């Protein structure tokens, strides 16, 4: 009887751990390319050294100096394009989502 109870307890613990390991259903990972006012390596370093100021949920940031683009991968349930633009503005970098920049042309 004790063996059966222990086996059931072990199965319940295993099921609980596997359910906890699954990603949350509300997470949506988004990649946005921003047209940014980056002119030099100092601007690139300023962004890369201050990633937390872009907001929560940031997974990856890449800056392309030649194309003047900042690519941000983030959790859309924790952040938005608007918040990232504000975060870049706090670093004195003007930016807007690439789609918006091209729509105005």
Q: What's the short story on this structure?
A:
The chain is α+β, with helices and mostly antiparallel strands and 105 residues long. The chain is built from 4 helices and 4 strands; from the N terminus they run αβαββαβα.
Features:
single chain, 105 residues, alpha+beta, Alpha-Beta Plaits, four-stranded antiparallel beta sheet, 4 helices, elongated, disordered C terminus
Find the CATH topology.
Answer: Alpha-Beta Plaits
Helices, by number, come to: 4
Tell me the series of helices and strands, N- to C-terminal.
HEHEEHEH
The structural class is: alpha+beta
Could you say which overall geometry the principal axes of the C-alpha atoms support?
Answer: elongated
Helix content: 40-55%
Number of structural domains: 1
Radius of gyration, taken over Cα atoms and rounded to an integer in Å:
21 Å
Q: Averaged pLDDT, please? A: 83
How does the major sheet shape up? 4 strands, antiparallel
Strand content of the residues, in percent?
15-25%
CATH architectural grouping: 2-Layer Sandwich
Q: Give the CATH class.
A: Alpha Beta
């Amino acid at each position: 009887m004790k063996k059966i109870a222990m086996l059931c307890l072990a199965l319940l613990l295993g099921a609980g751990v596997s359910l906890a390991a699954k990603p949350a259903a509300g997470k949506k990972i988004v990649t946005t390319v921003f047209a940014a006012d980056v002119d030099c390596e100092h601007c690139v370093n300023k962004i890369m050294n201050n990633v937390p100021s872009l907001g929560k949920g940031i997974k990856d940031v890449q800056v392309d100096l030649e194309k003047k683009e900042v690519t941000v991968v983030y959790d859309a349930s924790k952040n938005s394009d608007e918040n990232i633009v504000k975060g870049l503005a706090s670093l004195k970098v003007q930016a807007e989502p690439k789609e918006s920049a091209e729509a105005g042309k």
